[in-house]
Amino acid sequence: MESPQTPVLGSRATVQAPADVGxxxxxxxxxxxxxxxxxxxxxxxxxxxxxxxxxxxFRKEAEAMLNVCPKCGHHWYVSARQRVAQLLDEGTFEEWxxxxxxxxxxxxxxxKPYAERLVAEQRRTGLTDAVLTGTGMIRARxxxxxxxxxxxxxxxxxxVVGERLTRLVERATHDKLPLIIVSxxxxxxxxxxxxxxxxxxxxxxxxxxxxxxAGGLFISVLTNPTMGGVAASFAxxxxxxxxxxxALIGFAGPRTxxxxxxIELPKEFQTSEFLLEHGFIDRIVARxxxxxxxxxxxxxxxxxxxxxxxxx
Amino acid sequence: xxRGLHRLPLERPIYEIQDRIAELEAAPVGxxxxxxxxxxxxxxxxxxxxxxxxxxxxQTVEVARHPDRPKTSDYLSLVFDEFVELHGDKSFRDDxxxxxxxxxxxxxxxxxxxxxxxxxxxxxxxxxxxxxxxEGYRKAMGKMRMAAKYGLPVICLIDTPGAYPGLxxxxxxxxxxxxxxxxMMASLPIPIVCVVIGEGGSGGALGxxxxxxxxxxxxxxxxxxxxxxxxxxxxKSAEHKAAAATALRMRSADLRELGVVDAVIEEPAGGAHRDxxxxxxxxxxxxxxxxxxxxxxxxxxxxxxxxxxxxxxxxFLETAxx
Lengths: 312, 322
Description:
The complex is a heterodimer.
Chain A: H1 12-15, E1 47-49, E2 56-58, H2 59-64, H3 80-87, E3 94-95, E4 100-102, H4 114-125, E5 131-138, E6 141-148, H5 159-175, E7 179-185, H6 194-213, E8 218-227, H7 228-231, E9 240-243, E10 249-250, H8 254-261, H9 272-277, E11 283-284, H10 290-301
Parallel strand pairs in A: 6-7, 7-8, 8-9, 8-10, 9-11
Antiparallel strand pairs in A: 1-2, 3-5, 5-6
Chain B: H1 12-26, H2 31-53, H3 57-64, H4 72-79, E1 82-85, E2 98-105, E3 108-115, H5 121-126, H6 134-149, E4 154-160, H7 167-171, H8 174-185, E5 192-201, H9 202-206, E6 213-217, E7 221-223, H10 227-235, H11 241-247, H12 252-257, E8 263-265, H13 276-294, H14 299-311, E9 316-318
Parallel strand pairs in B: 3-4, 4-5, 5-6, 5-7, 6-8
Antiparallel strand pairs in B: 1-2, 2-3
């Protein structure tokens, strides 16, 4: 499902300094910086430069390791489709609400009209908006699953992301399914849809409150980057919060914070490890273990809740 | 209140007339002068109306941030018959940027939660200019939870540029507390009325903004991001803040049209800061009307309707499934 231009391994997440990630808002017109560095006589894209160790890595090797650097273990960007393929049992994903499409409620225009930006992002990523939702199996356990893609307008949440996630949560409540949402959003709430984007934070959170009251298990997986309005809503509301190693996670962007308090920020500031240390994350889970860790947590928490509904 | 100390350029014609009136009044007043003063007063009202009816989006932001604009603490004394402040989040610190406590509103006993900007420079600095820390949101959550336990309605007054962006705020879970607060407010079985009285800055505002009724004062704004922040990211320079303020559609009439607020509370001629008492009366009228409607509802219905209210927000296309 990837368009030819989709950056395969490297991304802004792996190459750009965390300081380039905005706070509550998003920047969409920059293409993710691809790490593809063409070499003389070698087909483009065969080798990639790791954003962690800066070493040159054979692409096939990294792909076999789920887009993790075989040398240093740095977790690279994965698209929402790749994530679904990595996490769910092969061929079990059934997409929901694919027919929802973004519109331009404000007639928003910065240096480029939002309507044009949407078309360009859709063409570039092969997605209609920044989240994929649906159902599938994780080691034979049925789940409701949502994955945001940080390549689509910085993975920011506008009306479609909010609506798809809300429907996902409502359906998970109704069908008594464990809920997994994998976040990758440097953008937070999407500026181009203004106040309506902000309200999606309340909308999804309210749906999660109902889901929780009904007894559902929500596992939130934070990946690089999870910032702003996404971090300040559903991503932080998991019964269990897992994070991939060294992901950038926080409320305000590091640049905003630097500009406000004018001091150097600690080296590990706003990383998964920083959040774990301060008590906001249950476990840091390497990508290769994510599937089995989620399956195990489901077995602990909802062996009673979802069994009777497995057939529905 | 110290009116007229901070003069916005857009208000210049108003101050010119006021100064002329003051000049005339200072000298011995004959009948000709009295006639002139009466004429000027009529003109003053007209000029105020005209200027404030024609504010552009950026000017609205300036008015919403006007240093003389009534703050949460002003409304606490002007609107309510009693305010019993309750401090602390029982965990880390008392955040002065979040005011919480019991209050009486005519016959209603309520809990008020509001972001506070402070009035003197010292207060402003202590309040971080209205930017609450995680302990502020924890304090708000604690008081709202207590309100629910004892069946007291909650009134939220919102006036913040945003939740504080800082090292300590991140260490103590700024994102986490805003998410938790919305999550909690979504299911509190008591009436919640939220009013944006000045700045409705992003997640910091929404963190105490999930209510059965959400209103906004006429010249307040409510936005996903500050116009400066938006301009910095999308236009690469904060100088484009006026263009961003326009594009974001953050003013009261826009919010009403987009279905985000239930009501716009009209401000006195020349803005809330020209007549805080009159503004307080209008705010009180709105609060009483809302409480009258909401206190007759069953708790379950309240929560269900609140859910539906936010559930409807957003705009998207939905084509028939292929």
